[in-house]
Structure formats: structure tokens, C-alpha cells
Design a protein that fits this description.
single chain, 162 residues, mainly alpha, 72% helix
């Protein structure tokens, strides 16, 4: 068994050929991290319409009455969490279930926000249809695509075990 660690196609618990999709997902998540960090470091504050987690500030402002002193740290916590998940998935090919659960939790406020935008046709938060389309595109790229990708990898692992 110890000789397995010296075989080039073996990296601890998952063969490298099996971990390639996880490495791609981890790389994709790193790219999302860079985007999210760039948005949060924007001079003068992040442009709200480009925020991939726009539903979180909406939820914190409208339902809990928090201001930017709470919202900015929460945004940075979500970015840090994404960096940690990307690293674990990229380097170790692990924690896919934890990532999927956390992605569902982080995406729920944005899905709610999209529903509000669609129902109110912008309402108090956005001036029009373009913002809804941009929010949906960001939601797809940041939540739906990696979430489905992680779920498919979880199912593929489960099927390969049986």
C-alpha cells in the first residue's frame, strides 16, 4: 500500500485521471474568486449590478436592516469561502458536497433577488431589464454552472463506487 504514494498516477486518495474534472472545477472557481475580489476592490465601492452575490446585500438591507458596516465584511467572507473551496477542490479534489451545499445557501438570496427583479420589473433596486439580464447571467456563471458541475461530479463518483 505505501508504494501507491510513489506511483505518478496516484495523489493520495484519488487517481489523477479521476481528479481532472475536479481540478477544472477548482480552476473555474479560482477564476470566479478573482472576479469577485476585483469587484469588491473596485475604487469607490463595488458596482452593485456587477456583484455576483447581489442578493446577499439585498437580503441584509431589506429584511435585517443592516448597513455597509455589516454588508462589506459579509461579502468578503463569501469571497474568502469561495477561495477556500476552490483551493480544496483544485488541489485535493475534496469537499464537493460541502461546496455544493454552501453554493446553494449563497445563491438563494440572489435567486430571490432575481425573482423580485422579474416580478417588479426592476422596482426599487434596478432601473430595467438590462440589469435583470446581467444579474441572471452572473447567477448562471457563479452559481448554476459550478453547482451543476459539482453535483455531476458527486454523482459520477457515487456511480463509480458501485
Amino acid at each position: 500500500m505505501p508504494l501507491l504514494f510513489f506511483r505518478p498516477e496516484y495523489n493520495g486518495t484519488v487517481r489523477l485521471s479521476e481528479s481532472q474534472p475536479e481540478r477544472l472545477l477548482g480552476g473555474y472557481l479560482f477564476a470566479l474568486c478573482l472576479y469577485q475580489i476585483a469587484i469588491y476592490r473596485w475604487p469607490g465601492g463595488p458596482p452593485f449590478v456587477l456583484d455576483p452575490r447581489a442578493g446577499i446585500p439585498i437580503l441584509l438591507i431589506n429584511h435585517f436592516g443592516f448597513d455597509n458596516k455589516v454588508i462589506y465584511p459579509v461579502e468578503w467572507v463569501t469571497a474568502t469561502w469561495l477561495v477556500a473551496m476552490a483551493a480544496m477542490i483544485f488541489f485535493r479534489g475534496r469537499l464537493l458536497k460541502m461546496y455544493l451545499i454552501s453554493e446553494i445557501l449563497l445563491a438563494a438570496p440572489t435567486a430571490y433577488y432575481i425573482a423580485i427583479l422579474a416580478a417588479r420589473h426592476g422596482g426599487d433596486f434596478a432601473p430595467g431589464f438590462k440589469d435583470l439580464v446581467l444579474t441572471v447571467v452572473l447567477f448562471l456563471g457563479f452559481s448554476v454552472i459550478p453547482g451543476v458541475w459539482a453535483a455531476s461530479r458527486i454523482l459520477a463518483r457515487r456511480q463509480s463506487r458501485t
